[in-house]
Amino acid sequence: MLGKTISGAVYGVCSHLIEVEVDVSQGLPCFQIVGLPGSEVREARDRVKVALKNVGIKLPPVCINVNLSPADLPKNGTMFDLPVAVGIMIALGELPQEAVQDTLLLGELGLSGELKPVKGVLPIVREAAKQGIKRCLLPGKNAWEGALTGEIESVGMGDVKEALDFLTGKSKKQSAGYGGVAKLAQMLSEKAASGQPDFADINGQQGLKRAAEVAAAGFHNLLIIGAPGSGKTMLAKRIPSILPPLSLEEGLEVSTIYSISGMLQSADSLKMTRPFLNPHHTITGRALAGGGRIPAPGVISLAHRGVLFLDELPEFKRETLDILRQPLEDKQVQIARSSGSYVYPADFMLVGAMNPCPCGFFPDRERCRCTPYEVRRYLSRVSGPILDRMDICVEALPMRFAQLAAGGGEETSEQIRERVMAARKRQAARFAGTKLHFNADMGTGEIERYCALKKEERAYMEKMFAAMQLSARAYHRILKVARTIADLDGSERIEKSHLAEAICYRQSDRKFWN
CATH for 2-168? Predict the structure, then answer.
């Protein structure tokens, strides 16, 4: 007899529904799984047999064949345990096939029959909802995750016996719900916003704050150079507090990545604020970009739609930093393995902070004792291509006593965020009907359309292009930053003053690297 159940698998951030076909026949007792199963899936044979035995269900001595369809897709993970167990009961005639109609089954079985949580539930349930699945049976700790879509009934189960009783109608169980995902998202956003550090804590550094505001408004990459203790790290950690909040769709997109990584442990861990990742400079290239035998998202994917902050930028290995070059352009990272090619999103705002030399005080020769060779060697750790991808480069000037002692009167994050949100609304109206979100997302075609210059501004940029020996990429990035500055000013077109400010943000890197 043949039994069929529906499960799912994740490949990168894409999900596929998997049909689990179970055939039971007379013959030499065996239990085999086909359909490109990974080692964890093959081990399901032993977990399922022992789990069913320990909940009082003894399997007869029969030949059990399990096929995971489509058979040409690799299957990994432990989420197939429950659908295999239920499929066996259908094949044995203990459960009608109609009981699992339009039902998604996911879950790992312990030897006692307990259902344990699994990774990647959110993307699989979202895909199931798109394909018309009406209900999903999940481990109890994953039930809240299945309920996030609001389009599918999510029922949490404690063990396999409880799941079988529910499917046969012997017991009833309430589906998980949180009063709507939109309400949950709003609650989490408000809770996270109340605990964020505020720009009002930073005295002085008005130029630095302005650069951060422009970067936040257009989602531009930002590099801060300055002496130790000038407030670089303090400001960078406050950038998320002035960024536009995630939309509901963006929040689910980011939460999907965290679900695949096994980092959604409860409803409180749903990502409804922009991520802020601050890896140590000893991080490996694989941890940054992602990878492994079964590739998992790296730090740059976990920072998707948020901020990736690299403090002490030159202390990172040069080859590690150069990994960022392609993701910064393509907004995604592609990892190829023998099992297939995996693509993870990586649309993040890169914020870097660094000292200008090993001691930190160059070019102040009264305090700096580094030789010219040491300064050049230190700065050369940041390659030209990475530097060229930084839209805004600004210097953090040393603080004066009067600025530190003044206290109070500084703008709050809320005040800055209001201006950022106003600029963001102008960008949303401009990019309506496209896949673009911020000015930083514009390609060459969009730059020509939305950043057109009049005669005076065009002549000014032609002069600066020759004087500064700009690359094509640097020229386009200046135009994108100028477009953001114009949005902050409420201007429909880019004026000369906007271009001048954007060009100023390219001067600091020339000061140190030249």
Answer: 3.30.230.10
